[in-house]
Amino acid sequence: MVEAEETPLAAKEDVLSILDSTGFGGIFLIENYSSVGAELMLYSIVNYAHERGLPVLVEDIFDAFAGYVRHFEVMNLKPPMEHVKVIKIGGVDEVGNVVSRVNFEADPTLYLQKKEMAIERAMDGERYVYVVTGFERILGFQRDVKGIYVIASHLRESLGNECRTTFTIIEGNVIESFQTSPLPLIEGVATSVLEIHDAEGLLRLKFKKSILTLLKGRDEVFLRPADVVGWW
Fold first, then answer.
1. What's the predicted TM-score (pTM) here?
2. Among 188, 193, 204, 191, residue whose Cα is nearest residue 33
3. Cα dist from 77 to 39, 45, 173, 181, whole Å
């Protein structure tokens, strides 16, 4: 049982350090198993990028980002959206500055090629924060492990891209319903992996792979959701 008064809580500076640890060219995989963890991490990332003076490019797969933004409205969260560009992968619910629409392709090679072309047109060599939402939906459409290997290989090839720092949000509870989990392959490519769980009114952030574990000896931190809302 986690008691808030006995648990050291992370401060804003801790969360900024977590986000900074990815670095340009890195891939930060966020696996959400909590009720509001994905929304609060996305809220933090958008605000973090704004404070760093970096534009945000969101890959909105089948309206996942749109869904999170609708939740922002219910939670009365108002992140700075003026610097956020959106690439729609399928879906119909448009929020933010939609700069490109990519038709869904069951063949991951075609989807990845079209997506990268859309990214190049949208950013034109500019440094940016890249956020992928709804990644579990693309993984769920793969009929066999071959498709997962194609996606993992693409992620591996994108490592070291100094133009972008990547945050990929996955709903872990959805992945758990898959007959075979693709997470081991994807986690193997990611430079950082974070799980978010509910913990007696707090959010437990567990580092499955992180440079912070090596540097600071920490494998988890706890957040109070109300604190995150109050930081920005």
1. 0.93
2. 204
3. 10, 13, 24, 33
Place of tokens 């996305």: 42
First to last CA, the chain: 29
Reported as a single tens digit per residue, the pLDDT across 129-170 is 999 999 999 999 888 889 999 999 999 999 999 999 999 999
pLDDT tens string 177-215? 888 889 999 999 999 999 999 999 999 999 999 876 655
What are the pLDDT digits (tens) for 77-99? 999 999 999 999 999 999 999 99
**CA 32 to CA 170: how far, in whole Å?**
6
- Helix, strand, coil shares of the chain, percent, nearest 5, are 40, 25, 30
Which pLDDT tens digit goes with each residue over 212-221? 665 566 789 9
Q: Which run of H or of E encompasses 208?
A: strand 202-209
Instruction: Give the per-residue pLDDT at 217.
Output: 65
Taken in order 138, 204, 165, 181, the sign of the CA dihedral is: negative
Give me the domains of the chain, ranges plus CATH numbers: 4-210 (3.40.50.11570)
d(CA 156, CA 225): 33
| Beta strand 97-102 pairing with 27-32 | unpaired
What contacts 24+ positions apart, CB below 8 Å, involve 215-221?
221/8, 221/9, 221/10, 221/14, 221/18
Distance between CA 61 and CA 41 in Å, rounded?
Answer: 17
Listed in sequence order, the residues at least 6 apart from 181 whose beta carbon sits closer than 8 Å to its beta carbon are 175
